[in-house]
Design brief:
By secondary structure, this protein is α/β, with parallel strands linked by helices. 40% of the residues lie in helices and 16% in strands. The N and C termini lie far apart (39 Å).
């Protein structure tokens, strides 16, 4: 149990949320062997709060980065993650988790993550489901994330799988690309909704430091960068028309994709994954996402070679579209 799992948490200016996350992790029924928290140049009271907890809990280590002058989601978050990643030996652990500092986790969260992983050898990445408070905190509502991917705010990975897929691409949509690479290589990526693993997300999903419009437009760019085809993308835009913010959010997403195409922005250079993903997306359109995922996971057993090295962990950031 001593070296079962490592947590790495990138953070910047999280003073309003982080105590709830810190308290929920240090109260886990199975504690992490190490928790590396990367302060990505915070200018609020984040450093002071981190110092307070690191002094109290010896498994918490703080890594401090210089202030870049702004909050950077997507590639900035992944860069900060790898700043912490480089300070330890990943092979000392069986599992690794990328965890945001704006969450409240149930007490048995990591115990149940480990149990599920141990029972299912092909399960490469797993998470519970994200919920958020609305109506002035009176209601807890699901973020509506699909079952076919672990949630970006708490990516719990088998180290073997994490290394084989090359970790996280340092760009927007890193938390979708990883799951497609998992399925390509025969691993299973999944999130599940039950009371024991539901967690609270204290910041709205898909938002941005500059507002919802920027966040939705960034999502459109991310779909373009990842290689999503027009047919599937337009279907997702139509689906989003009825999601908050109504119409506006969907149109912002559409413009993010179109603008990237018009500018000829560089896309992910991974032909095998993109071809696999587009076939999977077509299956989602014609058979439904649940059936498409079931088929991909069933046929994936033939491709599953966990000892084989496929992707390399990226050494530096992809600066496209930041």
């Amino acid at each position: 149990m001593d070296k079962q799992y490592l947590i790495i948490s990138p953070c910047r200016n999280e003073q309003d949320f982080m105590r709830k996350t810190l308290d929920s992790v240090v109260s886990q029924t199975v504690l992490p062997a190490k928790w590396i928290i990367v302060d990505d140049g915070s200018t609020d009271d984040t450093p002071g709060i981190l110092a307070e907890y690191a002094k109290k809990y010896d498994f918490i280590e703080i890594v401090t980065r210089d202030n870049r002058g702004h909050r950077s989601v997507g590639p900035g978050v992944v860069d900060a993650f790898y700043e912490g990643y480089r300070t330890t030996s990943i092979d000392d652990y069986e599992f690794i988790c990328k965890l945001d500092l704006d969450l409240i986790l149930p007490a048995q969260y990591f115990e149940l993550m480990i149990k599920e992983m141990n029972e299912r050898p092909r399960l490469g990445t797993f998470s519970g489901k994200a919920y958020y408070y609305t109506n002035k905190g009176a209601d807890l509502v699901s973020e509506g994330c699909g079952d076919e991917s672990s949630i970006g705010a708490t990516k719990f990975y088998r180290v073997t799988c994490f290394k084989q897929i090359g970790g996280f691409v340092r760009q927007v949509m890193w938390d979708g690309i990883d799951s497609h690479r998992c399925r390509l290589l025969g691993w299973i990526s999944q999130s599940r909704d039950d009371e024991a693993t539901r967690f609270v997300h204290l910041r709205p999903m898909g938002s941005s430091q500059k507002g919802i419009y920027t966040g939705r437009k960034r999502h459109g760019f991310g779909q373009y960068f990842m290689g999503t085809g027009w047919t599937y993308f337009l279907a997702t835009v139509v689906y989003r028309l009825a999601k908050r913010p109504f119409v506006f959010g969907a149109l912002a997403t559409l413009w993010g994709y179109i603008e990237s195409a018009l500018k000829g922005v560089e896309r992910l250079n991974d032909p095998k994954m993109v071809a696999f993903m587009r076939n999977y997306q077509w299956q989602c359109l014609t058979k439904g996402k649940a059936k498409a995922t079931e088929i991909a996971n069933k046929t994936g057993s033939e491709r599953w070679q966990p000892a084989e090295s496929v992707y390399d962990i990226p050494a530096q950031s992809d600066n496209v579209g930041q």
